[in-house]
Amino acid sequence: MPYTEAKEHVNGRLHALFADPYRAFENDANERQLHLRLMLYVLAVRPMAQGLLTLRVIHGWENGGCEPEALQHVDYAIDDLDALRAASSEFAEAYRLKRDFPSEQSAILADPLADAIAEAKAEGAALTTETLAIPARWPTFQGGLALYTLFKMYHRLIYGEDDAYRCSLCLTPHGEREIHEFHLEEGEFALLTPTPAASRDAPTLLVLHESQLEPLTMLLEESTALLATF
Prior knowledge:
Oligomer: single chain
Strand content: 15-25%
Distance between the termini: 48 Å
Largest sheet: 7 strands, mixed
Shape: globular
């Protein structure tokens, strides 16, 4: 199993800011709001101001379903709060008018999964139907561990998670990324940030379910306004 593709529960960049990031965002943590605002500035607001933030809104899975081909997404370049508000409004309008949510043609899980399977078969791997159908068995072929790690992230962002924060390391199409995943009262989202070794202009990806657009927008608005006074 190629563990170099991904690793969970790692020490990420927030470990340089907080003594114990895994507890810093729990509801009973001391100075929790300070931790939250500082984290948002470092991981989201700063790359947004630099034009390096992409918002990925996911939808399509519901009622416990998690088929890779059913997961849909749309990406937005976010360089200020107005761009974030516009994305939120687009989904709100689609919901109000009972239209399909915006989505792109490419499939964020199904397409790379199909590519990884085709490559594994070309190299002689014998992949059973069960292996292909069960995400927990994807790590048995090259590229599968990274895809399984992302699958779990998407699943938790849609269906929930008990841990307030977790950090993973994962290979993505943009290279190696730290996955900072948050499940908070204020909202649920993940930030895929460059590692410290990456170039300074490497992009950051903000991922959330469409139901989290409004609360995340409010959270960033509040945090940006607060930090602007310093």
